[in-house]
Amino acid sequence: MARVALVTGGTRGIGAATALALRDAGYRVVVTYVGSVEASTEFARQNDLSAYCWSVSDYEACVKGVARVEAELGPIDVLVNNAGITRDAMFHKMSPEAWHQVIDTNLTGVFNMTQPVWNGMRERKFGRVINISSINGQKGQAGQANYSAAKAGLIGFTKALAQEGARFGVTVNVVCPGYIGTEMVKAVPEPVLQKIVDQIPVGRLGEPQEIARCVTFLASDEAAFITGSTLTANGGQYIAG
Ligand code: NDP
User: Fold this and answer.
1) InterPro entries annotated for this entry (predicted)?
2) Residues 202-233: pLDDT tens digits?
3) What is the C-alpha radius of gyration for the chain, rounded to an integer number of angstroms?
4) Quick check: CB of 137 below 6 Å from ligand 1?
5) What are 159-199's pLDDT values in tens digits?
6) Which of 28, 55, 151, 220 is the most exposed place for a label (fewest CB within 10 A)?
7) Is 235 in contact with 201 (CB distance < 8 Å)?
8) 106 CB contacts (<8 Å, ≥6 apart)?
9) How would residue 240 be classed by pLDDT, with cut points 50, 70 and 90?
10) Ligand 1: which residue has its CA nearest to atom 10?
11) Bridge-partner residues for 232, per DSSP?
């Protein structure tokens, strides 16, 4: 039976590209979303994916959602923690709500989704957890103290959990995309976006499929020896040590 892969926020942008790449690699793919009901169900229907709606920031909803998916499709073998939001503001103007929304979704959401699948992966002696962080979690970004904190947190989370999962055949890795041409980035005003592109040595934004291929590799049997690793894909914009 084909492995089951769940991609949070898998109906748009990087998540959607990842879902399609995993499907094409032979997985049974589940995508989750939170708000865009019609577009998400249509995307799932057209692409032969199973779609479920709950917020990753709600722990109880994640526990129930994972239980439902596993009852309907079987154990989740691959978890891609992709769902993420931005609520940008310079720190002196950042509201507590903007801080908490981003931490709750981008960091606590990863705890909420990983814990319900973790014991099953350990017991079955196989699992892949792949977290989507960001270049801005590696280098920090003015106007994104909340987002940079959450995304840097994911790197530490990945390194710690990788050590716990290794002897159970469960790998945990993190992908740090640079600027990718999705709705999240297209929302950036054009002059600002041009300045960003000017800082990317390859001279363009990344494609969602370029991140999807990183995830598909980390999910594969070929990546069994890779755990606790940070895979940077940013066109050379930030070359981490
Ligand atoms: P998009 O804004 O295009 O899509 C975000 C997805 O996350 C949507 O499917 C959305 O669901 C879902 N989502 C948001 N909040 C929740 C929630 N509380 N519960 C469940 N799902 C949720 O994002 P991108 O594709 O651009 O980004 C994907 C990931 O990659 C994010 O973690 C982002 O931080 C990261 N990233 C993106 C970069 C980029 O340049 N685009 C660069 C570096 C990292 P719905 O459609 O229902 O709203």
Assistant:
1) Acetoacetyl-CoA_reductase, KR_dom, NAD(P)-bd_dom_sf, Sc_DH/Rdtase_CS, SDR, SDR_fam
2) 999 999 999 999 999 999 999 999 999 999 99
3) 17
4) no
5) 999 999 999 999 999 999 999 998 878 888 899 899 999 99
6) 220
7) yes
8) 83, 84, 85, 147, 150, 151, 154
9) confident
10) 9
11) 176
> 15 C-alpha to center of ligand 1: Å?
7
Is the complex ipTM more than 0.85? yes
Q: Give the integer Cα–Cα distance in Å for 123 and 66.
A: 16
- CA-based end-to-end distance of the chain: 40
CA 82 / ligand 1 centre spacing (Å): 6
Give, in words, the CATH class of 4-230: alpha beta
Nearest to 34 by CA among 65, 4, 67: 65
Q: Exactly one of 27, 52, 147, 179 is catalytic; name it.
A: 147
Question: Is the minimum distance from the CB of 148 to ligand 1 under 6 angstroms?
Answer: no
DSSP helix, strand, coil percent of the chain (3-state; round to 5): 50, 15, 30
Q: Angle, to 10 degrees, between the axis of helix 208-219 and the axis of helix 13-24?
A: 50
Tens digits of residue pLDDT in 73-105: 999 999 999 999 999 999 999 999 999 999 999
